[in-house]
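B., you asked whether I could sanity-check this one before it goes into the benchmark set. Here's the sequence:
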Amino acid sequence: MPAMNAPADLHPPRPDAREVADLVTRLTADYGERALTSRAVRDQHSHGEGLADAGLPDVVVFPHNDDEVAAIVRLCHAARVPVIAFGVGTSLEGHVAALYGGVSVDLSQMNRVLEVNAEDLDCRVQAGVLREQLNAELKGTGLFFPIDPGANATIGGMAATRASGTNAVRYGTMRENVLGLTVVTADGRIIRTGGRARKSSAGYDLTRLFVGAEGTLGIITAASLKLFPQPRTIETAFVAVPGMQAAVDLLARLREATGDCVTTFEYLPRIAVEFTVRHIPGVSDPLGTPHPAYVLCEVSTARHDPHLRSLLEDTLAAAMKRGDVLEATFAESIAQREALWRLRESVPEAQRHEGASIKHDVAVPVAALPAFLREASAAVAQVAPLARLVAYGHVGDGNLHFNLSEPAGGADRVGFLALEEALGHAVHACLQEFRGSISAEHGIGQLKRELLARHKDPVALAAMRSIKRALDPRGIMNPGKVLPD
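And here's what the prediction gave me:
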């Protein structure tokens, strides 16, 4: 392994144009209609949902199994050509852009559920299996996979970005729910990490190394996952609160009352509800009266529990006496519960209607959220007094989507990028104070690399670069992502 004080630069591969052309010719010969070079297909694979500046791959290949992925990577390794794994393109930080050209490996046709072990609460799936597809195939078993990042992402992509979502307050993130992986390394070898055992103390934890590596160390082709019993009792409430401090206090009281039954605890400021009602057809304010902020909370148990509703009602009533709750409504039917969830899940789509936005996916300790929100809001106001702040998200585990809409009147591209950088500095300074993270679930990708440089200790960054060099010495795996220049 290189020395910990090795140079900071990790030069991306710059293959000869003729080598790239020869590689494309070889791949189209080997994979036929599953190796495509049309502009439309390449453009589709040049960006995710959150990146406007695309990076076109030279060819897109659709493998069917681990051996085909390994063969593709071996060719790329020999030619020193970049290789980028692609799921369905729902990532937000520029993870899938082919910044230096190369081969986009689309895993969507590797979409089989390989095994379900209901008695042991686990399953094994190929990387291209979609989250909703997995849960559809689990119907009838009484089990489900709880990680829900909002998008119908692939399991491989969710593992690569260490995704989480609205259920993380109870079930954790992908990090806690992946038991093992099949990975194709940068030189085209296949390794299997972890296994089905829930406990292991055998050597380095390679599973956790690849979970969250964003395709920079290898390509995940299959995953073994934890499963959980479907909840039999679910109680859902939409609650008006005076602000973040009241929300955090309510969460603490709810945990005291119901133990580990708190499944969801989502915070929405008034502005988020207003523009969601304004832009999304069929969405309405469940309370009908404007309030400073709201919480969508859900408690559940795997068994029938007739007392869970009363525990939730009593907790909210006590909080109302203290002033932490202003008003509340309960979902009395499946349709009402779905309407509440539609409101919450439509917030990102609604914000896109509000114009260009700058997104910071931050996390701090739950108790620090009110102070962080105050200080970060003040810092942002100094940099961009006209920007509209929308801070919402998974307060149950300290994850806040700290988004800002473009100032009224708009800005040119250069001005908007300058504003984004300034806001990044402001938010980062607050995160340092509260020992938070610059990304809780979206990852680093291309867009947050420089923030990572300011956020991580230099020795930690050097260790990351050493790992990258050791596992990908030619720098072909998703170059230009995660590690800063």
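One thing to flag: The longest strand covers residues 218-226. Otherwise nothing jumped out at me.
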